[in-house]
Design goal:
The chain has 149 residues and is mainly α. It contains 6 helices and 3 strands, in the order βααββαααα. A hairpin with a 6-residue loop joins strand 2 and strand 3.
Length: 149
C-alpha cells in the first residue's frame, strides 16, 4: 500500500523520508520512499507477518503521527525534533553531550517494546540525494579479481 505523506509536509514540513528514518528508531526497516509516487511511503505488509507485528507497526505509525502533531502545534522545534534528527544511533544516545530538546529515551526507545525489539543504525542522517548522485565504491579494484592462469 502507498501512504501519502504530502499533507504532513504542508502542515509540519515533515517529508516521507523523515517518517521512514524515524521508523528505524521504532525498530522497523525504512520502507521504500517516493516510489512509485513522490512524497509517499510504500509499505508491503504480507501474509507472512503475524498480526502482532502488523499491530506493532500501526502503533509506531500512530506514535509518529503524534510526534508530527507536536511540530504542528509548536510543541516541538520544526527543525530540531525527534523526527528530523532520526534515526538516533547508539553512539548519539550514550554520548555524555546530549543537546537535543527531547529525551534520549524518546529518541531511542519511543515505545515500551522498543527496549526489547531494537536495532540501532550505525549512522544517523545522510544526504540521500548526494549519495544517489555520487556513488563511492569501497570494493577492491576490479583488477584484484582477475582470474589466475
Amino acid at each position: 500500500m502507498i501512504l501519502d505523506c504530502n499533507p504532513l509536509k504542508r502542515v509540519a514540513s515533515v517529508d516521507a523520508i523523515d517518517i521512514a528514518k524515524r521508523l528505524m528508531d521504532y525498530g522497523f526497516h525504512a520502507p521504500t520512499v517516493a516510489f512509485p509516487v513522490p512524497g509517499t511511503l510504500m509499505v508491503e505488509p504480507t501474509e507472512s507477518e503475524p498480526l502482532s507485528e502488523l499491530d506493532r507497526f500501526i502503533d509506531a505509525m500512530l506514535a509518529i503521527r503524534e510526534e508530527i502533531r507536536e511540530i504542528e502545534e509548536g510543541k516541538a522545534d520544526p527543525d530540531n525534533n525527534v523526527i528530523k534528527n532520526a534515526p538516533h544511533t547508539a553512539a548519539m544516545v550514550i554520548d555524555s553531550h546530549w543537546d537535543k530538546p527531547y529525551s534520549r529515551e524518546k529518541a531511542a526507545f519511543p515505545m515500551p517494546w522498543s527496549e526489547e525489539i531494537k536495532y540501532f543504525t550505525p549512522v544517523t542522517r545522510i544526504d540521500d540525494a548526494y549519495g544517489d548522485r555520487n556513488l563511492v565504491c569501497t570494493c577492491e579494484p576490479i583488477e584484484s579479481y582477475a582470474l589466475e592462469e
